[in-house]
Write a structure and sequence with these properties.
2 domains, 5-stranded parallel β-sheet, single chain, Rossmann fold
């Protein structure tokens, strides 16, 4: 009997080709579109309106001759993704909704809905791969980077579990993006020339300040520039003390001077340069710290400002996640890995140190704009081994 796969058809070329390839491989394929958002007032509608995407997904399904349905997950998306985003920004942290969407929506709620339809697997258009190995007689699933180095999306899947991976297929993971477009063109898929969405997972391109202002009130506050010497003095770290190497920097207003004002510290993120609307300085200004309690934004001048760089980061024990559970570190153990703290960042050599309170990651070279709330993922070569939320 044919294995059944439910494909998350987003209306883009990648998921369209995923559905086409699976059908060609002999699977019983069902296409399903996830509607995750109702409020069009904050989406930049010309970029990626969900209605157009839903129609494109339906057209592709009709062309391939596969069943199609749309599922409304907007209530769950609001509860699990949007409310979490608001809470994190309110705390002065920067969440990654795409990682959360994969963990909470695509490979949880959507997966459960697919299983109700008798699916053996769910498939997406992610540029990632998986394989399996046998360890002590047990099947272990490995999450691997996509073959296209410019499109590898394994980072967005860094919170998946062994169970979720066991049910996942990534049909375009072995392909380069130009090959995917060529397959779509040859197959006559309506999405062959459609440009990639840059927006939130299954929502569309969102103007983030407008989006956040639905719940977070704009509030004027001081923007204070911290001189390089004060940053070094304030943030002196011992190379032998893991907590001090990984602790987020703390600044005091008296260390700097007021260079302008902002509309709310919770709207900004460490490393941000655009959208500050503060001029008249000899070098570009970057956000190096946010104080959401006192509504103060701390700035550093120039890309070389020491406040932009940190040697390490900390993951609280509750936020530590191992895709490869069999490789998780025991208390007191250390291991060398490669890690990235954001999508598309080059992998950087680091050492993981497991302590009772959590995981310390110390990089060989200081990293720019380590941001609380974001995800860090660590790799052994091309395999994503684990991830965590930066504290």
């Amino acid at each position: 009997m044919k294995k059944r796969v439910v494909v998350g058809l987003s209306g883009g070329v990648d998921s369209s080709v995923a559905a086409y390839l699976l059908k060609e491989q002999g699977y019983d394929v069902i296409g399903m579109f996830m509607k995750n958002w109702h409020d069009d007032s904050v989406t930049i509608s010309t970029e990626c309106p969900w209605l157009d995407d839903s129609n494109d997904a339906m057209i592709v399904a009709q062309h391939l001759g596969i069943p199609f349905q749309a599922i409304d997950l907007s209530r769950e998306y609001k509860a699990r993704i949007v409310d979490y985003m608001f809470a994190e920004y309110q705390r002065g942290r920067t969440p990654n909704p795409d990682v959360l969407c994969n963990r909470e929506i695509k490979f949880d709620i959507f997966l459960k809905e697919a299983l109700k339809l008798g699916a053996d697997y769910v498939a997406t258009g992610h540029y990632a791969r998986k394989n399996e190995v046998s360890i002590n007689g047990k099947t272990v699933y490995r999450l691997l980077a996509g073959k296209d180095p410019n499109k590898d999306q394994s980072y967005f899947l860094c919170q998946l579990t062994q169970h979720q991976l066991s049910k996942a297929l990534f049909p375009v993971g072995e392909l380069l993006k130009p090959e995917v477009r060529e397959i779509a063109r040859r197959a006559g898929l309506a999405t062959a020339g459609k440009k990639d969405s840059q927006g939130l997972c299954f929502v569309g391109k969102v103007h983030l300040p407008d989006f956040l202002q639905q719940q977070l009130e704009p509030k004027k506050g001081k923007a204070i520039a911290i001189p390089e010497t004060a940053a070094v003095y304030t943030n002196g770290h011992s190379m032998d003390d893991l907590p001090s190497l990984t602790r987020p920097y703390a600044y005091l207003p008296e260390y700097g001077e007021v260079v302008g004002e902002h509309s709310g510290a919770h709207f900004y993120t460490i490393g941000q340069r655009k959208g500050l609307n503060i001029g008249g300085q000899p070098k570009p200004l970057f956000v190096i710290g946010t104080d959401t309690v006192n509504n103060v934004l701390y700035m550093g001048m120039g890309e070389g400002h020491p406040g932009l760089y940190r040697k390490g980061l900390f993951i609280p024990a509750a936020d530590e996640h191992w895709v490869r559970e069999d490789l998780s570190l025991a208390e007191g153990e250390s291991m060398n890995y490669l890690a990235r703290i954001r999508y598309r960042q080059a992998l950087e050599p680091c050492t993981l140190h497991k302590k009772k309170e959590g995981l310390y990651i110390i990089f060989d070279k200081p990293q720019k704009a380590i941001t609380p709330g974001q995800f860090v993922a660590w790799y052994n070569g091309e395999e994503l081994v684990g991830s965590g939320v930066i504290g």
